Amino acid sequence: MPRVTTKVTDHIAHVTLTRADKMNAVDPEMADAIVAAGLALIDADIRAVVLSGEGKSFCAGLDVMSFAALAAGDPEGVVMPRTHGTTNLFQEVAMVWRRVPVPVICALQGAVYGAGFQLALGADVRVASPDARLAVMEMKWGLIPDMGGMVLLPQLTRSDVIRHLTYSAEPVAAAQAERWGLVTELADDPLARAAEIATGIAARSPSAIRAAKRLIGVAESEADEATVLLAESREQTDLIGKPHQMEVIAANMAKRAPKF
Question: Do both 156 and 71 map to the same domain?
Answer without folding.
Answer: yes
